[in-house]
Amino acid sequence: MQRREFLKLAGLSAAGGRLAGQQPQSFLAPTGPQDVARTDFSLEIAPITVELAPNRILSTIGYNGIAPGPLLRMKEGVPVTVNVVNKTDVPEFVHFHGLFIPAEVDGSEEEGTPAVPPHGSRSYKFTPTPAGTRWYHTHTMAMDDLHRGSYTGMFGFLVIEGANNPGNYDQEHYLALRDWEPYFTSQSMDNDDLDATGPQPEKPAVLDTRPVGIEVQADIFSINDKALGAGDPIRVKPGDRVLFHFLNASAIEIRHLALPGHKFNVIALDGNPVPTPAAVDVLLIGPGERVDAWVQMNQPGVWIMGGPEDMVRDGGLGIVIEYANQRRTPQWTAPPKFNWDYTVFGKPPSQPAPTEKLDMIFEKVPRGAGKFNTFTVNGKTYPHDQEFVLKQGTRYRLTFHNRTDDSHPLHLHRHNLEIAEIYGKATSGVIKDTVVVPTYGRATVDFTADQPGLTLFHCHIQQHMDFGFKALLRCS
Fold first, then answer.
1. How does pLDDT run across 75-120, given as a tens digit for each residue?
2. Whole-angstrom Cα distance, residue 249 to residue 317?
3. Beta-carbon contacts of residue 20 (< 8 Å; ≥ 6 apart)
4. Region 356-475: CATH code
5. Which of 276, 243, 278 is nearest to 173 (CA)?
6. How far apart are CA 179 and CA 358, in angstroms?
7. Per DSSP, what are the bridge partners of residue 82?
8. What is the pTM of this model?
9. Radius of gyration of the chain from Cα atoms?
């Protein structure tokens, strides 16, 4: 039996009319003890088991005995303490992704955050901002150990409540896309290209034909802690407006998501409201990215919301949407042809470009570390901490030159990025902390260097970060 066949057998083929009697999906309209705005939180890092399906239970490391970890809900501007107890044999870091907080509590070893020692504890104290859908996760290096770092179950949603009411919705759900049991392979199975026909201004005239190193892959997936068909469906009524908070918590791959017959009305990216909300058939979410979107439930039936790629969906990436009084086998139909485009959610540029400019050129060195590929930034290896020295409070225009054959989700800690140009299109108002730059593509972003000290920049694919795809920016 192939690795993903168990999901077909344990999931939809066995689900039929029995979905209502199976275990509930985690984080569906969460009501746990930490789902209120608090000022004191506790996280315990320890080995856990995750039951993806009745015949698939895996071991990993998680927070508070579950994966995803507890939803942490905080008030913007109200100081909090997060007490972390590490019950493992290795040091750990908890990164609070998308927050504007000091480097010493950001959760990055590269920035100087102290580790949570093995069988020890540490308290993170900070004032959460900005408001929106954020998340937290481990930030340890994994290198060739696929049981460390973001290959584990150490991730969870973090919501910072602001003054604005998100609107009137009948339901609200937090859904994290995950892959499990990663393995090394020399067989590339990337499906991360944004648009194969899009512009590729950084494609070299002569391609590197050297044999590439091994990559990390997975073929077992879930939404939160359940594979498709193994958890309760999301039950809706015709006319419901359902707000979804999506997170790609993968360590490996950019993901797509579709719901047949329905559209995703995108209202925020990486927790930041977009200037132009728009309806799309398919979402593209890079590792580290979040999408807030509502769906008008106007197609009664029982549907699969999942990955458009058959092998990904068959591997477990999906969840059932069940309308009231509908009892039938969950249905899937392929979505229309789509091209993901950040600029759809933006507005025309209106402000002059920053006069201070930076360039980052990314290149891949096949088998630069033995059997693994390595990455360089501007032809150099990490850390670059004296190369990108920024002036406190200054606005910068940063251009990413992706001269590799992969799309990369690029994350800048402790700052937001405003997309100025991507796919050859100018835009403004799309504020993110993680931006997917397409294969051989170019993207320009603006940001204000208003967080003093060291700031880590990296690709959010774990293996790429481990093997050099990162740099330190120094603000003084």
1. 999 999 999 999 999 999 999 999 999 999 999 999 999 999 999 9
2. 12
3. 232, 233
4. 2.60.40.420
5. 243
6. 35
7. 41, 124
8. 0.93
9. 21
